[in-house]
Amino acid sequence: MTTEATNILRPIIPSKIAESIKNLREQGWVDDDFFNFWRYDEESAEARLLYHFFRNNRVTFAAAIINSYSVQEMQQ
User: Fold this and answer.
1) At the top level of its lineage, which domain of life is listed (predicted)?
2) 71: pLDDT confidence band, cut at 50, 70 and 90?
3) Beta partners for 71?
4) What is the DSSP string of the chain?
5) Rounded to whole angstroms, how far apart are CA atoms 35 and 57?
6) Nearest 5°: phi and psi at 10?
7) What is the pLDDT confidence band of residue 76, given thresholds at 50, 70 and 90?
8) Do 63 and 69 form a contact (C-beta atoms < 8 A)?
9) Is the CB of residue 15 less than 8 Å from the CB of residue 73?
């Protein structure tokens, strides 16, 4: 019987999204908070940004929150 190693790739997210996740975690957000949309207060630009990213990239967003992620640097 052979076994194959399974590679789990980390999702690649934009640096602006990674920065928002980091800042909200520093404010005390935990994994569950990112999936409870009542936390996405209209007063928080970072939370709104993440909410819109989630709406368009659900699987990537969930994997980034639950596991880890790589950052795609924005080219200027």
Assistant:
1) Bacteria
2) very high
3) 13
4) ----PPP-PPPEEEHHHHHHHHHHHHTT--HHHHH-GGG--TT-HHHHHHHHHHHH-HHHHHHHHHS--EEEPPP-
5) 13
6) -80, 135
7) low
8) yes
9) yes
